[in-house]
Design brief:
five-stranded parallel beta sheet; alpha/beta
Length: about 130
């Protein structure tokens, strides 16, 4: 995957549950950028992308892989796209540490607090634009 870096790049969202995905799309649409949503990693990888996403938001547990493995694979291929990992309440502190060590920009537990979620994603976007 070779992506052209441009300003105003989209946020990519990988969330398996349709209702949660729709809720997060609604929240992310409050930010001044496009949101592209995928139900799994295979759908994300199958998308012909011409540019790197501004940010990737993914669940820790996915049907076809897990968020930590995805981050590691991205970093092994030289992709530095910031990744925000979404976790369920049953994920441990160890999981959060593993995600951050793998290269996650942030680790957000569910249930999502709307304002906190938007502020944290915006902070990741601001950091990546420096």
């Amino acid at each position: 995957m070779i992506w052209k870096l441009t300003k105003n790049r989209p946020i990519h969202l990988i969330v398996g549950n349709g209702a949660i995905r729709d809720q997060l799309i609604r929240l992310l649409n409050k930010l001044p950028t496009e949101v592209k949503a995928f139900e799994n990693v295979n759908a994300f990888l199958a998308e012909p992308l011409s540019e790197a996403p501004a940010c990737l938001i993914t669940e820790i547990k996915l049907a076809d892989t897990d968020g930590i493995t995805l981050i590691k694979q991205m970093r092994e291929h030289g992709l530095s796209t910031p990744v925000v990992v979404l976790a369920n309440g049953d994920d441990s502190v160890t999981t959060a540490v593993q995600a951050i060590h793998a290269g996650a920009a942030d680790f957000i537990e569910r249930p999502i607090v709307e304002r906190d979620f938007i502020e944290r994603v915006q902070a990741v976007l601001d950091e990546s634009n420096r």
